[in-house]
Design a protein that fits this description.
The protein is mainly alpha-helical. Helices cover 71% and strands 0% of the residues. The chain is globular. The two termini are 37 Å apart.
Length: 286
């Protein structure tokens, strides 16, 4: 990951916690037992003027509650889904089949239209309740390989954002770095769709999944805060963002904040209609 990318992520995580640069430096000093990190160091990291070394990356990951691999990971080209899927999630033989599937779709005319993609999303919403994560992951990988060839409209970015959100959910909580990587990809795709409901929904879905599993509380807070800043309109996405923050607060032992967020979640729930058009994704398994 480039120094600019690391710095941007550190800044987002810090601000989601409501910390100043000086506060982050103090937390790093306390966690490491060495009073050597300063506000100036944090500022240089965030501006991409300097990249934190392995020692401070480990301390940042601990203090900001994010898997270390997320800070260390290589930057992924958002359109290069094939290489990312082959390298991080799918066995080589299956990856070969997926590439063939993608080229076959291209040769036959480019893949499904928007309505067919929306129908496919709805199907995933029901199949997710009955099929195993491995099978859903395999099918999603194939669809992502095809969808990457159709990213020529904001509506397709919306479809891909939701596919990637579901793809992230197929990774177990113990493999938090892969899930976080795909949630971040989904957020970027949602932003490119320029659809406010989708931008909130993707972030809310990521926040509640990560907050519930306790896999990466810092990232859960970051996504939730972003959703709240994008729109305060009651929706499933906003509800998930608020409840994701509540889960994270409870896991940290901040029960007062958790109760306040729970009350806020109930207010959002009461104002949210039962049919949320931005969803386009699965309900949580029981």
């Amino acid at each position: 990951m480039s120094s600019n990318a690391v710095g941007a992520l550190v800044r987002e995580l810090r601000t989601s916690l409501g910390w100043s640069q000086a506060r982050l430096a103090d937390e790093l000093c306390e966690a490491s037992g060495h009073a050597t990190a300063t506000r100036e160091d944090v500022s240089r990291w965030e501006r991409g003027k300097r990249t934190p070394g392995p020692y401070w990356l480990a301390q940042l990951a601990a203090v900001l509650e994010v898997p270390r691999q997320v800070l260390e990971g290589a930057k992924v080209d958002r359109r290069a889904f094939i290489s990312s899927l082959a390298a991080t999630a799918i066995a080589p033989v299956i990856a070969s089949d997926l590439i063939a599937h993608g080229f076959d779709a291209a040769l036959r005319g480019g893949g499904p239209d928007i309505e067919a993609w929306r129908d496919r999303l709805a199907t995933y919403g029901t199949d997710y309740m009955t099929e195993g994560a491995a099978e859903i992951q395999r099918r999603l990988a194939g669809d992502l390989v095809v969808a990457q060839q159709q990213l020529d409209s904001s509506r397709m970015w919306e479809i891909v954002a939701k596919l990637m959100t579901l793809f992230a959910k197929t990774f177990p909580g113990a493999d938090g770095s892969k899930a976080v990587t795909w949630y971040r990809n989904a957020v970027i795709a949602a932003d490119r769709s320029e659809n406010i409901d989708t931008r909130v929904w993707v972030r809310g879905r990521a926040a509640i999944a990560l907050g519930y599993e306790g896999a990466s509380l810092g990232i859960a807070d970051m996504f939730a805060e972003q959703a709240l800043q994008i729109s305060d309109k009651p929706s499933i996405g906003l509800l998930n963002a608020v409840m994701g923050k509540a889960h994270a607060a409870a896991l940290r032992g901040d029960f007062g904040a958790a109760r306040e967020l729970l009350a806020e979640g109930r207010r959002v729930f009461d104002k949210t209609g039962s049919d949320d058009g931005a969803c386009g994704g699965p309900r949580r398994r029981g």
